Amino acid sequence: MRNRSGRVEGMSLSDAATIAMPTVDESGLSGQEVAQRIESGQSNKVKTSTSRSITDIVRANVFTLFNGIIVAAMVLVLITGSWRDAVFGFVIIINTGIGIITELKAKRTLDKLSILVASDFLVHRDGRDVAVPHDEIVLGDLLWIRSGEQVPADGHIVRTWGLELDESMLTGESRTVRHKEGEQIYSGATAVSGMALIKVNAVGEHSYAATLTAQAKVYTKTVSDLNKGINTILKFMTFLVVPLCVLLIISQIGTVGGWQAALATGEWRQAVVSAVAGVVGMIPEGLVLLTSLNFALAAIRLARKNTLVQELESVETLARVDCLNLDKTGTITDGGIAFSKLVMLDSAEQHPGSGRADAGHAANSIWDEHTVLQALYDLSNEENPNGTGQAILAGLGERGYQAGAVAVRVPFSSARKWSAIAKSLDSAHDLIWTMGAPEVILSALDGDYTDILTQVNAYADDGNRVLLIACSRSNVPDNFADDPQLDPSSIPVALVLCAERVRSDAEATLAWFREQGVRCRIISGDNPVTVGAIARNVRLTGDRAPVAMDARDLPTDIDELARVLENVDVLGRVLPNQKKAIVQALHTGNHVVAMTGDGVNDALAIKEADLGIAMGNAAPATKAVAQVVLVDSKFSHLPDVVARGRQVMANMERVAGLFLVKTVYSALISLGVVLTAIPYPYLPRHITYVGALTIGVPAFVLALAPNTRRYIPGFLKRVVHFALPGGIATGLSVLCAAWFLPGIMGWNIAASDADLAALRATSAIILFLMGVFVLARVAQPLNSWRGGLVAFFAAAGVIGMFIPFVANFFALQLPTGRTLIATLIALAGAAVIFFICLFVAPHVARLAEGFSRRRHNDMKS
């Protein structure tokens, strides 16, 4: 059916475009000009390489300080031929493999980064339209932008046939925008209706989308407080290990008669193995491995809940987040608009002025709600309805409404702010229905409609998009379709309320964050009044009304911005660079900031945040720079994400003390061995056996236990305070046994290998007992499965000594006779030392803290 405007009802412009494109005056570029521009690099091709090659990734993970120390120690042991004492080296293979695989996965993600959808586009060249790939669009091309296509390059509009763009990925503004001839449009926007011919003025890496992509693709690694603490320990141990290793070798050579005797008899091998025992014990290699494995396991668990963790270290950041910036569209709302309801107005009776009361009553008799809803459906049923029109059609379609007969149609125009249709009433009259912006329509009507405007503003303040329907009973002018004018005699009939669809899980998720002490803010490119209303609806701040602000009023100074943000909950009209500045300002207040988003306009802020969270339907650039992607775009997954991070960090802090106890006692024993020139009291394989049963495996189990305590910075300080008492007690116990047992037992450990083996076996038993004590302290409370865990590994260590293969491989000996008595005495002494250290440590810590506080106050005064 053809209407009076000359268009075919029910056919979209994009459909028409596939049948016959509009004619254009220009012929476009010639084939020779295109070839020249491609050759000169003026095409739309963008490089896709990241800043880190595969070689860089492998080098960064293989050549680390930790790996260097362990490899050097392992090589020294292998040179001596004692391969059993080199089993500690396997940990670097596992740890390095995890790191390389993870970063290669991140590299693939970054390499695939592209804001633009790769597809063919229609260009006008040599006087005809041809389809070309995205990369073959060149500077100066005449490019068709059709409904449903993403703008592939920047350009200005030459001609437009109602082009309407969704620029939310670029600006954050969820409303679509209609552009006029001569206006600039940018790559990354999506055409939702109409079509246009544009002249390309920026391509490739010079286009807007590619510029954002280039900034987003710069490789950055998540800063991990846990890894920083471990690296601090490694750096400290490096300064200690190298000279201590040399001193240990020298002291051990001395115990076998000096260099000449050691080289002649081959005793130098045992001296090297003994020195490595001290060095390896000081390196918390298990902690490095457990950290990587625990991060990876957390990522796997989150993946089962449709949450993709792209950087393992970001799991730790989850635990520290205290400030969450939420993008409204795509996070709080699902990005769509829904028809809410129709509010009928009785305007004819309230405003009968200008002699129009009769017409008003005549119209009022035929505009019952059903009739108005049918008119609303027909008003929205344009060739290319915008987002609001689509929402109305969907909502009324569910109620059974279908397209009715329309005599004349005036499509919606962003310039007019209204649309209209004419329906035949009888042989002599038509009904002209108008729908659009209330303030525009009412200003053109006869009468005073202040009360309706007040009603409109009240609905708008509640977050609704409000349209007005007016109706007049008159004949349709012949030129109405070409030169439409509002009939001043029209009567306001109803208000149409539409609103963004709020996610059903948004309110409960925000309540969880409030309970957990995480401050949430909504940051959007939309109107602050609308965003503020949505924030109230989802109870962003609980019982307190959220404070909304227009971002155009924000200060540019970062420090001043930080002060303003402390009292603001909602920000509207936020530009992409402002989102980044907001994150930077929150950082000045020592906040750990998480940022959610789905648009290209969010990419830079997500990258600036400590933790970037992208929705699954986000732009590719946004997903690529985010550390976490909610694959199914469900905001309700965020509590699981944060809780998993808290579990990892709280438990890692708990078990890190186990590893540092070994570092402390190894350093103390090595120092005692050097100063007193005694043989090293145990072998590397002893530390491997004891460490596996009292540290490594139990730590892994404990690290998986539920724990939702929010992480507080200061990991290293707290862990060191825990590790010092246990480490000192263990070190003193082993040294006392090494100093006094040979005299008591009559062992000649310098001349007899059997006596030295007996001492080392006894020292290994002491290490094991002290390890069980430390494990019991870490696993508290013991009145649950944790107590069973300690008992199990204590029993496993004892049983292992009775298994011949295990005992031979790890050089374990069961004490008998006088050796058993001496061992029991040593164990009793070790237990006494352990509990004394535990009792003394808190008092020493309080004294040190008091002294530090007094010194600080003295300096201030």
From TrEMBL:
It is found in: Cell membrane. The chain crosses the membrane at residues 62-80, 86-104, 236-259, 271-297, 655-680, 686-707, 719-745, 757-776, 788-814, 820-845. Keywords: Membrane, Translocase, Transmembrane, Transmembrane helix. Residues 122-215 form the P-type ATPase A domain. InterPro entries: ATPase_P-typ_cyto_dom_N, ATPase_P-typ_P_site, ATPase_P-typ_TM_dom_sf, ATPase_P-typ_transduc_dom_A_sf, ATPase_P-type_domA, HAD-like_sf, HAD_sf, P_typ_ATPase. Gene3D superfamilies: Calcium-transporting ATPase, cytoplasmic domain N, Calcium-transporting ATPase, cytoplasmic transduction domain A, Calcium-transporting ATPase, transmembrane domain, HAD superfamily/HAD-like. This is Haloacid dehalogenase. One of its GO terms (cellular component) is plasma membrane. NCBIfam families: ATPase_P-type. GO terms for molecular function: ATP binding; ATP hydrolysis activity. It comes from the Bacteria. It is a multi-pass membrane protein.
